[in-house]
Design goal:
The complex is a heterodimer of chains A (130) and B (303). Chain A has helices spanning 2-10, 18-33, 38-48, 53-58, 61-69, 72-76, 80-85, 89-100, 111-129. Chain A is mostly helical. Chain B is built from twelve helices and eight strands. The chains are: A mainly alpha (130), B alpha/beta (303). Chains A and B meet through helix 2, helix 3, helix 5, helix 8 and helix 9 of A and helix 1, helix 2, helix 3, helix 5 and helix 10 of B.
């Protein structure tokens, strides 16, 4: 079923599924830099699928996740000392910096391009056989 | 003793940061030695194989080639189930299919990358700890028992499946079981935890579709959370950053989108073992988890 779905999508007989859109964004980052960045995958996927990121952050689960990740419920409970003691400084800094300075494999060089060419060649061969 | 290259992978570099920090702290506290894999690349996770399977095989093999060729290591240790699974899969495919090995080597030469020769093995962190110390070795170093905290050990689906890529499992006493894994249970029991009978320890959390098919993932995670609570667990111990993030995220999503609240805490096994070895909650990055277990562990006298 999965192979058939992939074939239908690659031949343009079916629209790309959300799962394919996710795979493509993930693979794009891998081939480009050798590594992915979590937040970039998430936000680019939501953008591609046309989801309202602002609404998800303001009212939806994504906002709750971010609030809990930063221990904001402790502030609401008036537990200021616990809030300060549990601030995820290292994690926040690392993830924030990764948004600006994208994780990258320094020795990636031609690897991404070689892999891209390989995939294109394999798809051409498969298409010619079919 | 093997010369071990530590492969954190993208998740531990990003959202799984607390797993990375607790792994490093734990390994240091146990006097074990590992060196981070030099300039590693993504293993391809669960996504790139859907574009083409060879991408995943090559990217995983490239990491093993770096370990052998550039670092002289014979073992790669991966704490992430996705990385562990992919490297084991590449190891298996290259060992059993000459054409795959040839393609991997041809691509490496073309890209000017280190060439994989099949001379590296991959271990999960759990396997490495069992190999180097075992429960008795860990027990001897415990200074702060987990005091009977009830734990459901969750291994996820990629730690044991597909069966054929893990030939070292199911080899009798002492080996890991693909049907009923127990390494995490053994280590946490040695640290003073009480493991509950948890029937869903190898069920899928829907990690690969956590965003693309969120409702399915939320349902799968809810099964895991509710089953753990019904088994009497206070904590679900995890050993994979994707499972861990999925459990945390969909626990919130179940609450927000469907009004179903669960209270079980989600903690990396490395954080629990670290606490039992006397490391502080901050040292094992417990405060960086989304699932807040600090008050609970404080009440139990663990921290």
């Amino acid at each position: 079923m999965k192979a058939l779905q992939h074939w239908l999508e690659s031949e343009g007989h079916a629209p790309k599924s959300r799962s394919t859109q996710f795979d493509e964004e993930f693979t794009r980052q891998c081939l480009e830099r050798g590594r992915i960045e979590d937040s970039e995958v998430l936000f680019n996927f939501l953008k591609t699928t046309g989801e309202n990121v602002v609404a998800l952050v303001k009212q939806g689960w994504l906002g709750t996740l971010i609030r809990r990740m930063n221990n904001l419920p402790l502030l609401q409970q008036g537990r200021y000392g616990a809030f300060l003691a549990r601030l995820p400084v290292t994690q926040g800094l690392k993830m924030g910096l990764a948004l600006v300075f994208k994780p990258r494999t320094r020795s990636w060089g031609r690897t991404g391009e070689v892999l891209r060419q390989y995939v294109e060649e394999q798809k051409r061969v498969a298409h010619a056989k079919a | 003793m093997s010369k071990v290259a530590y492969y954190p992978g993208c998740a531990l570099e990003g959202s799984g940061g607390p797993y990375d920090r607790s792994t490093r702290a734990l390994v240091k506290a146990l006097d074990l030695r590992m060196t981070e894999l030099e300039d590693w690349n993504c293993c391809g996770a669960m996504e790139v194989k859907n574009i083409h399977p060879m991408l995943q095989t090559y990217m995983s093999a490239r990491n093993m080639a770096i370990a052998a060729e550039k670092m002289g290591c014979d073992t790669v240790m991966a704490p992430c189930n996705g990385c562990y699974h992919n490297l084991k899969k590449a190891e298996y495919e290259c060992a059993t299919d000459a054409e795959t090995m040839q393609t991997v080597q041809d691509l490496a030469k073309k890209a000017d990358d280190p060439v994989y020769k099949g001379d590296v093995r991959t271990l999960h962190l759990l396997e490495w700890l069992m190999e180097e110390l075992g429960p008795e070795g860990v027990k001897a170093r415990i200074t702060n028992s987990l005091k009977g905290v009830k734990i459901a050990n969750y291994y996820g689906c990629m730690y044991t499946r597909p069966r054929q890529i893990f030939p070292e499992k199911d080899q009798g006493p002492g080996s890991e079981s693909s049907n009923a894994p127990h390494y995490m249970d053994d280590l946490l029991a040695a640290a003073g935890a009480v493991n509950v009978e948890y029937p869903l320890k190898t069920a899928c959390c829907g990690g690969a579709h956590t965003l693309s098919d969120s409702d399915t993932s939320t349902q799968l995670v809810l099964n895991l959370l509710q089953a753990a609570e019904e088994c009497g667990a206070d904590i679900i111990a995890t050993e994979c950053p994707t499972c861990h993030s999925g459990l945390e995220m969909h626990q919130i999503r179940a609450e927000e989108a469907f009004g179903i609240k669960t209270n079980v805490k989600i903690v990396y096994f490395t954080q629990l073992l670290g606490l039992a070895l006397g490391l502080s909650a901050r040292k094992v990055a417990l405060h960086e988890n989304v699932s807040d277990s600090i008050d609970f562990l404080h009440e139990k006298g663990v921290i």
